[in-house]
Design brief:
The protein has 143 residues and is mainly alpha-helical. 52% of the residues lie in helices and 6% in strands. The chain has a domain at 6-86 and 128-138: Arc Repressor Mutant, subunit A.
């Protein structure tokens, strides 16, 4: 089963931008913080820019910064901007329709998965990027 770390990386990127309080940060600096390739960060930044969460500038003064206050960005927005698919998925092959479970399992799982996805997004919406920064600062690790 494949999992995605785009959401976690996007929160990390936005947390760095929030921590910099309006100063532009290059994709190379962001990549250094996450310990990944700047190309991956640039792809994330494109999605975040499309969602209206960051402002990116090329050339002199290049870099990215938040497009609005961290208090006005919630984790559900970030999640939806970078995750292409739902967290829960059913197998691509259809189950055996002759089986009493197989013929109706997808409908049963769809209801459960839809509910779980909605609950997760509702919970993420309760946390802002400012809340994340407060936790990071409270950890004492920031200098």
């Amino acid at each position: 089963m494949r999992t995605s770390c785009r959401f976690a990386m996007a929160v990390h990127v936005l947390a760095v931008l929030a921590y910099q309080e309006g100063d532009r940060v290059t994709s190379a600096a962001l990549a250094g913080s996450i310990n990944t390739n700047p190309v991956i960060i640039r792809r994330l930044l494109l999605a975040l820019q499309k969602a209206g969460l960051v402002d990116t500038c090329r050339g002199a003064g290049a870099g990215s910064r938040l497009s609005r206050s961290p208090k006005r960005i919630n984790l559900a927005e970030i999640y939806r901007s970078v995750e292409a698919c739902e967290s829960f998925a059913t197998p691509s092959k259809k189950p055996n329709n002759a089986c009493p479970v197989g013929h109706c399992i997808l409908e049963a799982l769809d209801v459960i998965f839809t509910s779980a996805q909605s609950a997760m997004e509702r919970d993420l919406a309760k946390t802002t990027l400012a809340d994340v920064i407060a936790r990071v600062k409270a950890s004492g690790a920031c200098k």
